[in-house]
Write a structure and sequence with these properties.
alpha+beta; Pnp Oxidase, Chain A; Nucleoside Triphosphate Pyrophosphohydrolase; 2 domains; seven-stranded antiparallel sheet; seven-stranded mixed sheet; 19 strands; about 20% helix; elongated; binds flavin mononucleotide
């Protein structure tokens, strides 16, 4: 028996950012089956081996562990829907995807970043899961970026590049933590927000810089990425950069000392969370990048607690 709270353990495991795959096989009745899995790992180059963990509770357990092989389809960054379909109890998960039989016989899904058609080398006992060890018999890549997954939310590595706008179809909001000598630029009086704009072109950094310069009248340099998250209800992707302002009085907004951030109240939980993290990280001068969504419970709960305590 585990001595841990399973939910807490799952959340801690979830801090490890992964890709997302759909693992497929052909059932005894000749029909394709598959499930979403992020437990993929490359194992060996010679011989070519990979692994996947399969829950013993899976409806596909018997078939997957006795099939002659399985395929691992590494989902591309535009295949979030495929991931959802293959994780839900849908009657025919293959009805909404295009697929073909791979060289070794398992289903290969169209449009994936990469696929590996494997023979089943070994089924290894592993608690409430088994480890499926596959020997790669054939594989292919498309050059697409893989879909990312961390703390229960999807992210796309492409968001760090200019391809971002195209990938999210215009539902992209850009904003910045604008810094100047230990201060941060905020908009609003009581309910504060970061300066930003809805993206319209394919060059988010240039767009954001132009917007911030027009807004403040200051010279702005766009720095590194700070946060990428999805606002689930509005179906909007947010990208937050660090940015640096030159001398002068800003035309709009005001600079506040980083040390006061925990005592301020922000327009959205996500902004409060970003600012709380920024205050913490500023103390060490060690800035990370957050990928996730706007409802990643624990992080937000922490930041809210900080706001209330202060
Ligand atoms: C992003 C993501 C990753 C998942 N990874 C795994 C995994 O590695 N192994 C697993 O057994 N289930 C995993 N699941 C859950 C299965 O996809 C889901 O429970 C399964 O499809 C249930 O249907 P089934 O009983 O038909 O297999 C994952 C789900 C999601 C959304």
């Amino acid at each position: 028996m585990s001595i841990f709270d399973p939910r807490a353990l799952r959340d801690a495991f979830g801090a490890f950012a992964t890709g997302v795959t759909v693992v497929t096989a052909i059932g005894p009745d000749g029909r394709p089956l598959g499930f979403t899995a992020n437990s993929f790992s490359s194992v060996s180059l010679d011989p070519p081996l990979l692994s996947i963990c399969l829950a013993k509770s899976s409806r596909n357990f018997a078939t997957m562990t006795t099939a002659s092989g399985f395929a691992v389809n590494i989902l591309a960054d535009d295949q979030k829907e495929v991931s959802s379909t293959f994780a839900r109890p849908v009657e025919d998960r293959f009805a909404t995807v295009t697929w073909q039989t791979g060289p070794h016989g398992s289903p290969v899904v169209a449009g994936v970043a990469a696929w590996f058609d494997c023979s089943l080398a070994q089924v290894i006992e592993a608690g409430d899961h088994v480890i499926l060890l596959g020997r790669v018999e054939a594989f292919g890549t498309s050059g697409k970026n893989g879909l990312g997954y961390v703390r229960g939310g999807y992210f796309t590595p492409a968001l760090t590049a200019k391809a971002v706008s195209a990938a999210v179809d215009g539902h992209l909001f850009l904003s910045a933590v604008v810094e100047r000598q230990g201060d941060v630029l905020l908009l609003g009086e009581t309910s504060l927000s970061l300066p930003g704009l809805a993206s319209e072109s394919g060059d988010p950094q240039a767009e954001l810089q132009a917007h911030l310069q027009a807004l403040t009248g200051l010279t702005i340099t766009i720095g590194t990425l700070y946060s990428v998250y999805e606002e689930k209800q509005a179906d909007r992707q947010h990208i937050v950069y660090r940015a640096f302002a030159g001398e002068g009085v800003p035309g709009q907004g005001r600079f506040v000392p980083v040390s006061t951030l925990p005592s301020l109240s922000f327009a959205t939980m996500a902004t409060g969370d970003i600012m709380a993290r920024f205050a913490r990280e500023s103390a060490f001068g060690n800035f990370g990048v957050y990928f996730g969504d706007d409802t990643a419970g624990r992080v937000h709960a922490m930041s809210q607690a900080m706001v209330r305590k202060a």
